[in-house]
Amino acid sequence: MSRRIVAAGNWKMNKTPAEARELIAELTPLVKSDEKDVIFCVPAIDIVPALEAADGTNIKIGAQNMYFEESGAYTGEISPQMLTDVGVEYVILGHSERRGYFHETNEDINRKALKAFEHGITPIICCGESLEQREQGITIDWIRQQIKVAFQNVSAEDASKAIVAYEPIWAIGTGKTATTEQAQEVCGAIRALIKELYGDSVAEEIRILYGGSVNAKTAPDLFAQPDIDGGLVGGASLKAEFGDIVKA
Ligand code: PEP
Fold first, then answer.
1. Strand, coil or helix: 70
2. Would residue 119 show up in a list of annotated catalytic residues for this protein?
3. In this structure, what CATH number is given to the domain that contains residue 99?
4. What residue ranges line ligand 1, CB within 6 angstroms?
5. Is 63 helix (H, G, I), strand (E, B) or coil?
6. Residues contacting residue 57 through CB under 8 Å, at least 6 positions apart
7. Contact call for residues 77 and 132 (beta carbons, < 8 A)
């Protein structure tokens, strides 16, 4: 079966609501595609204006984080219902910046993923190793552990709808992209693990992205790899260049 390619942008903590509207208006003609899923994951306060600006286009709006409780005394957090109420279908979970700066653990990410599935939100589950771990030769073991815990108690049906993003920490925002071989090796290992956990058909259906300084130049080779189904793009998703990445 052929998997639908995903071009997801992670805006991180960039763009005010007014700027979000402007950027979406600018990028809309550049990211038009019938065969690919184009997703902009925007800051929480930009979600509603972004949804309005993207109305009638092929752009889907995603969140960058979500809490694993339904509601209550969790100051500063956003619940799954708040996202679905406005029409959000995707959420990035476990980005390395959230793991690093905000101490999110694999267990937190698992709880969030289960909650997202419960509400029909597709999680984009991030994993990735540090430069030190790569140099120690433990990349694959580390990624397997991250994914195993993130998918604990996730049903096969839900797992087949998930999106996983392999993002080596040393490649994020550094201008240093992993080689196509490095990216394919890890994305292939993630698919092999999903096959061990869930069998052939889930492994065939789940979409696995590469992220880490993807740009218009590196995207074509990366996305041509057998186990890479698109990209999660940070810096370049805020520019017209994202249109060329979508085309790749
Ligand atoms: C990211 O933050 O998900 C990312 C891949 O960033 P960048 O493309 O800027 O490296």
1. coil
2. no
3. 3.20.20.70
4. 10, 167, 172-173, 211-214, 232-236
5. strand
6. 24, 28, 32
7. no
Mutate-to-test residue for ligand 1 from 167, 174, 217, highest number of ligand atoms within 8 A of CB: 167
Cα torsion 139, 142, 148, 150: sign: negative
Number of domains in the chain: 1
pLDDT single digits (tens) 177-214:
899 999 999 999 999 999 999 999 999 999 999 999 99
Q: Kindly report, residue by residue over 212-227, the tens digit of the pLDDT.
A: 999 999 999 999 999 9
Residue the block writes with tokens 């990211």: 31
Structure tokens belonging to residue 70: 């339904």
Please confirm, yes or no, whether 167 is among the known catalytic residues: yes
Q: Name the residue range of residue 103's domain.
A: 5-247
Show the DSSP H helices in 102-240 as ranges.
106-118, 131-136, 139-150, 156-161, 180-198, 200-205, 219-223
Collect contacts of 196-205 with beta carbons under 8 A, ≥24 apart: 197/148, 197/151, 197/159, 198/156, 198/159, 198/160, 199/156, 201/160, 202/156, 202/159, 202/160, 204/1, 204/3, 205/1, 205/3, 205/160, 205/161
CA 98 – CA 86 distance, rounded (Å) = 24
Q: Ligand 1 centre from 213 Cα, in Å?
A: 6
Q: Are 126 and 172 in contact (CB under 8 A)?
A: no
**Is 0.90 surpassed by the pTM of this model?**
yes
- Structure-block tokens of residue 56: 């009638």
